[in-house]
Amino acid sequence: MYMKGLRATALVAGLLTPLAACGSSSTTSGTSAAQPLKGVKIEVAAKWTGVEQDNFLKIAKIFEGETGAKITYTPTGDSLDTFLAPRIQGGDPPDIAVLPQPGLVAQYAGQHALKPLSADVVAAVDQNFTPYWKNLGSSGGTPYGVLIKAAYKSTMWYSAKAFDTAGIQPPQTWADMVGPASQKLRDSGVKAPFSLCGASGWTLTDWFENVYLSQAGPQMYDKLAAHQIKWTDPSVAAALKSLGQAWQPNQVAPGALQTDYPTCVGTVFGKKQAAMVYEADFVGTEMSKYPGADQDAKVFPFPKVGATQPVELGGDIAVVMKDTKGAQALLKFLASAEAGKAWAALPGYFSANKNVPPTAYTDAIHQQLAQTILKVGDDARYDMSDMAPAAFGGTDGKGEWKDLTDFLRNPADVAGTQQKLEADAAAAFK
Amino acid sequence: MALGFLLPALALLGALVVYPIVFSAYRSMFDASGNTFVGAHNYTRIFTDADSRTAMRNTLIWVVVAPSLVTVLGLIFAVLTERIRWASAFKMIVFMPMAVSFLASGVIFRLVYEGDPHRGVINAVLTTVHDTFSSSSVYPGAIARPGSPLTPAPGNAFVTTTGIQPGHMVLLPLVGLPAAQLPKSATQAVPAPAPPPDGISGTVWLDFTRGGGGVQNHVDPAEKGLPGIRVQAVQAGKAVASTTTGPDGTFAFTKLPAGTYTLKLPGGNFAAPYQGVTWLGPSLITPAIIGAYIWIWAGFAMVLIAAGLAAIPRDVLEAARMDGASEWHLFRRITVPLLAPVLTVVFVTLVINVLKVFDLVFIIAPGSVQPQATVLALEMWRVSFGGGADQGAGSAMAIFLCLLVSPAIFFNLRRFRQEQ
Amino acid sequence: MTAFSAARAPARALSWVSKGFVQIVLLGIAIFWLLPTLGLFVASLRSEADNTNTGWWTVFTKPAELTVSNYQKLLSGGGFTASFWNTIWITVPATLLVVLIASLAAYAFAWVDFPGRDWVFLVVVGLLVVPIQVALIPVARLYGLIGIFGSIPGVVLFHVAFGLPFAIFLLRNFFMGIPRELLEAARIDGCGDLTIFFRVVLPLGKPAIASLGIFQFMWVWNDLLVSLVFANTDSQPMTKALQAQMRQFGANIDVLAPGAFLSLIVPLVVFFAFQRHFVQGLLAGSVK
Description:
A: alpha/beta; D-Maltodextrin-Binding Protein, domain 2; six-stranded mixed sheet; four-stranded mixed sheet; globular; B: MetI-like fold; 2 domains; three-stranded mixed sheet; 13 helices
């Protein structure tokens, strides 16, 4: 596992101009001689598997070393909801759950399943996060969670070799990307320009959100996110029409609906059946599996569809479900700059902590993206489906995930897709 | 005294089986929050909600297809194994999946059904067989650029958009082929020499310069010919002459009668390689999972039926054989009727089991096709514990499931009475 | 198969041919049945990169690529090993308890007279087919109230309760077959019910108890749904631990394949060691 992490780091570092590693994580701050939480067990449940899981465990080790607590990590599997629901019902939730969507904070807070953050955790959050990020972890004005891991979701990953062969540069606009650039890629003999991860509905919602944010603008984006306008709105139709240009059968590598994330990454860098794959910065952690991908994989910003350059963000929010000393202490640690810096030195991690400097990242891409994420609040927007109720924006095979999967199956059906989206949204937003 | 013996069993059954049925029935009449009484709403929802209707339809398919297939297969296996010496080894192999968890079976069959022929064994076999019988083409996936003299025709073919008179030379550019996959014999493309007055010549080449240089529809220096492509001269819908391109992509027709021709590059040149079947897609997912189910349960049916067969008195069969009855006749008129009770038990057991099938669907169906693959037992789980967590609706589905299996109770009781 | 034998075959040659044909067909079926499991086994021995890019059958052309690194990685993680022990801690008690509680009840239903005996037994038989889905929500609440939710005892009790109807049904039918004279004799010797149960009924019931034990063992070992709801991380068995990795099937084959294979080894060994009992259990009372 260590080897894998190392290779992934090396690869991401090679993406742009290589920079010397600047991780300053080794300066262990304030080692309290006594271990205040010796023997305390803390269970953390999250969706992470693979590299993400390993990296979290490394951070957990630091906390364990400082406090003497013992952290148990539980992968929740496919759906966090199906994992938590029976455990809440049975009165035995994990101490800390990492919610992949802010929408879930409100949902669980409404079920009285969350414990408010203790005063010193709130203080740490105030010290390290801008109000925008703090609010994402709050419900009804009460802070419940800390956004411990962010994701930059407006990155298009591409194979430099495929682009070279086709003789194209990373496209600046959507029209160029789905038009001439795609045409040239197909001419050059790539099976399809895009690899889609159609078996994982969330990647499709991210596509849509980038297109909508760029085309309809941030104000409309906020309205749609809050369901203040309907999904039958003309702006949605326009976005779906644009999206349909990229999702045409001749644009998409075969078998997209059966391809999950991250298998779709391999379609580009392993099987070389497509030239581009869209997903967030964390795609970088997948490259170690494919020979030569570390040289081949590059990113360009999600191109403009309309007037706005889309910047979409996502993240994982840690909440307390059992009000124990250990749980609050761990959250305080995770909210600190110390944890953020240590985590940032590992691949595939992105912090929303304003006191984690860009230099904490070991690769150029993240250093560059980190600048953007700190300036969030202007045109950057948070992942819309993640803020919606889980029944609409966060469940495999239901709501928006299902409707967009159907749309990928039949990208001509704009009106029908809108109807379904609106019906599902209306039921979920009540 | 009796109470002492029964108490542990009855207490457990009461608390964990009977009470939950009662509670679920009660809970099913309330909404998601559990506070508002909604009457039969959750039950009508089973029949109106799109997802649970899919679940009902799929459950119906399961009940109609799976138990009968498994029973028939079990019967065939049981009868056949009577004729071989290594019967017990065979039975052990076929029965073995019964010992394997649904989860492991699910993992096993995800590997089997993987769509990519390089990874999924079924599609690997299918594509191999397919390629043995119809050789794959050299230039799959070739495309004609918009604005080129070629246009796609049915069956992967390309035809020229305009008519051509003898005495002319034509350029037929194609793109969309990875340069690395061209045949080794391909050499630099050249415009074909001008034909005699009664001939048509031309060049078929890969009109793509690495890195995007070159002029479209023009033979550039770095571009290679496409050797071995069949070219037909077509007049009034009929191919009147046919030739093949050389290493530099040139071809020539001679001695053509006067008239206007279209040139056709037949589909055989470009047929896309066969990619196998999308087993885990929305249309085949249920049959695919039923396939896995048969793999697991055929052994069960076989063992029970074989035991039934062993119990059939040999002398009855021998007597019939003496009378000159054919084996098929024996099978239909004696074996099957005598086996009827066993077959019924197997069948009913399977029906009950199929109604409750959960793990297999849950594991094999990828997230994106779970809505198409869902069955009642899985939908109950998705509704109660999935996004939205509506335990009222979930309880209603659980009770509905109970009602569906309840006829089996009477079947059991009757069988039990007969055994008394 | 009958097409060949249908021809009223007195000619030995023909029958020999048909026999050979049947052999070949069955051999084909046997291979067909073995292949998927073999595929899992081979895949578990291939590196992540190999599994990502090629199918397991390529091993036949280059067998050198096999490695046990997947197993090493899985077992060094600790989590999987813990779930293996959890599976044992769930399966063994759940099996023993079912056998004990059910044989007590079965004895009462078979040989102790009390009012309404047949009716109660009929109800128990009726409970045979109740789907466990109906109990998920209520029992989760119940366990929450008494504080055993997420614990191994909770999972065990649930398995015991839903194993009982079948167990009682099977054992009662078997106990009914014990000759009355044996019990009468014991009673005349002054034995109480308890002594009769332990000294006479249990020893005589061994074959049925063995069948039941194997059956219940397999059932609990292979369960996913019950542990999915009632177990937490500390108490989760292998099936649940592996299920959590299914989210990214394509990417997690290196964990899933060896995990699934390890999880099926024990039931397979049990099955081969006791297949006679297993089959007898099936014959004695299917319908579950």
